Amino acid sequence: MTVKEYLSRAYRAQQFIATKERQLSDLRQMADGIGGIDYGKDRVTSTHASDARVVAFIDKIMRLEHVITTEKESYLTTVQEIRQAINAVENPNYRLILENRYLNHLTWEQIAEVMFISDRHVRRLHGKALDAVETKISKIA
């Protein structure tokens, strides 16, 4: 795994969580669409197919909520690891670039605007910052 891949793990994890949250929202919408029971009519004592569907949706929703919770916990651990690696870099400009890129997920142009430098210079400093992180990670590992 390259240093860039190592630092990008938080962004990817965040994307996976967002995808699962959209799936959860879709499941909830589908569950809301299941027809209700008309209690005004006489009820036969057999099990309704809609009852089984509701239970199946609730089960899927609960499982997906558990997966999302687990992924969020993993995401927080990943962010902490990345933050430690970035904080180990001594140059404050490098740290600012790395934090804005890999933790705040800003574009090169946004980082350049924050730092009042050109985006080309940001990219050049980013390369040096990656080298600095690689040095720190290799010392830790």
Low-confidence stretches: none
- The topology string of helices and strands comes to HHHHH
Q: Enumerate how many helices there are, as a single number.
A: 5
Average the pLDDT over all residues and give the rounded result. 88
Helix content: over 70%
Structural class by SSE content? mainly alpha
Beta-strand content: under 5%
Number of domains: 1
Major beta sheet summary: none
Q: What would you call the shape?
A: elongated
Key words describing this protein structure:
141 residues, mainly alpha, 5 helices
Question: Would you write up a description of this structure?
Answer:
This protein has 141 residues and is an all-alpha fold. The protein has one domain (3-140). It is 78% helix and 0% strand. It has five helices and no strands. It has helices at residues 3-32, 49-87, 92-102, 108-115, 119-140. The two termini are 13 Å apart. The mean pLDDT is 88.
Question: Mind sketching the topology for me?
Answer:
Blueprint: H1 3-32, H2 49-87, H3 92-102, H4 108-115, H5 119-140
Helix pairs in contact: 1-2, 2-3, 3-5, 4-5
State the gist of this model.
By secondary structure, the protein is mainly alpha-helical. The chain has helices at residues 3-32, 49-87, 92-102, 108-115, 119-140.
